[in-house]
Amino acid sequence: MKGPKTEDVAEMLIQYINSICIEELSKELVDRMSQIHPTLQQNFTRVCVDWFKELSEKKYYDLRNEASVLLAKRLRKELDSSYLPHV
Description:
Helix content is 69%, strand content 0%. By secondary structure, it is mainly α. It has two domains: 35 residues; 51 residues, no CATH class. Helix 3 crosses helix 4. The radius of gyration is 15 Å and the shape is globular.
């Protein structure tokens, strides 16, 4: 089975995040993700961890993403020492 292209998934996520209230997004997305298969939950967590690692490496940021970058920098050591097994 061939899935959607990464760039298409990213674009859909960008449009989704940009088009609705972030509080609604967070609640609805978290609710939905908590209902999927545990293996898929683990895989989604891997994506989130990779996102935080990427953010933690940003050298340049401004007030629009400063809080996210600084949070990622604080979390980085914990993320690096954590293991998410493929089960």
